[in-house]
Amino acid sequence: MAGQFEQSLEHFNLVEFLPEWGNVRRGIEKESLRVTPEGSIALSAHPQRLGSALTNPYITTDFSEALLEFITPARDSIDECLEFLEAIHRFTYKRLENDELLWVCSMPCPTGDLDAIPLARYGDSNIGRLKTLYRRGLSNRYGSLMQTIAGIHYNFSMPDEFWPAFQRLHNDQGSLQDFRTSRYLHLIRNFHRYSWLLLYLFGASPVTCKCFARGRSHNLEEYDDGTLFLPYATCLRMGDLGYRSEAQKSLFVCYNELQSYVQSLNSAMQTPYPPYQEIGTDSDGNPLQMNTNLLQLENEFYSTIRPKRTTEAGERPLSALLRGGIEYIEVRALDLNPFEPIGISAEQSRFLDAFLLFCLLSESPVCNQEEQTEISANLEAVINRGRDPQLELQWRGSPIKLTEWASNLLQEVQHTAVMLDEAHASKSHAASLEKQREKVANPDLTPSGRLLAGMRKSGKSFYRYAMELSLKHRETLRDGTIDSKHLAILEAATSVSVERQKEIEESDNLEFNAFLAQWNSYHV
Prior knowledge:
By secondary structure, the chain is an alpha+beta fold. It has 17 helices and 14 strands. The strands form 4 sheets. Strands 1, 2, 3, 4, 5, 11 and 12 form a 7-stranded antiparallel sheet that branches.
């Protein structure tokens, strides 16, 4: 191991990788649809026993009242992070009503009347009404069904102790904030180049219910009477039927430096978009969207990764980035793993940490539109045909087989896995890497391959097979106990959140339309 460690340091031109540098911090945001015992989207309100969706820091909602979002604090221990996520699941299951359960797949369950899907509601405060109006805008722009897709967001940052020493190693004489920001942008550019690998290794949405494609053009094949799929697909959630926006294809968002990134999104929030102008902002007194611009607000920009900074009270995300630089990055390209009760495993988390550290430490040329076109084509190919053994991608204008490129990348990631294992006196990161190598050698071992194989073996449709897994995980989570420490934290947060929402509502001193106008007038 010592020899490997020295080789890995040399590979990245490092003279050291101190043990404390291995204390990577990660937080997880995991979405799950609430569904009825019959497997349809729950139309009931967000359970009161889970507190206020506006102010509970651990349990909230995304697009719909039915789309729960579980949020862990940032932790430098993978086990502690996943234990907290499991505790949130158990806590929630003990408070769900009407025998509801959590859908374990990213692609949603069968849907009937799309107009019946309840938008998330956050109370009567201005900010609560704004959050609901934003979601109404998403529904009118992209359709409610797309917004019921669930995923995992993985928040990653290096420990504070890492940055001053890393800056000295690079002989950088600027501010630490600017150096850290530039290196996170460095990571993001590499992530875009190589994120297709994550879709291959962890994509778990090769199939969908027919209702999801209702009235939309697609290239999917019929699996059975109620199911569509592609034989070699990995992650349809990230494809044309999922998180895609035709309007946003006109945006070239550059990650070469923070100012250009901020200005790109700021411009999109100020630019009227004719199709959204046709929708309008009001119909007979009913608000339809926040505004008619290309983006209603920053978070509407669909991306596989985002630079992030914790905002202060009343602060907008772009302003926070300009104030304090990039604090962490948010990976948004991960499907729920339907074979894991909480949607993600420690093995996957270890690989993600090693992969993201590789993206941070490796050379990262500046991006341009030509490379962005290549990156988009590679993602689309892996989304639709990733498990095809003959699939070729493009690297700097030349074809390369996915299996060859994946093996080369894993060889690179091995160096960061070695360094993280050295820091933790462990072999767990290397073990996770070996599991990924097995998937490259055998596509049937990927979550997408396993999902299709399980459906075939059971003779069940996607809906029936996903229900079977959902029920199985419900029993695992509902019947277990919650650690007393986690239970106390979640109970306190639930109680406090209700009071906090009331305080916010009582403190409003602007009429909502004036508040909305003020919000829409923002620019950096």
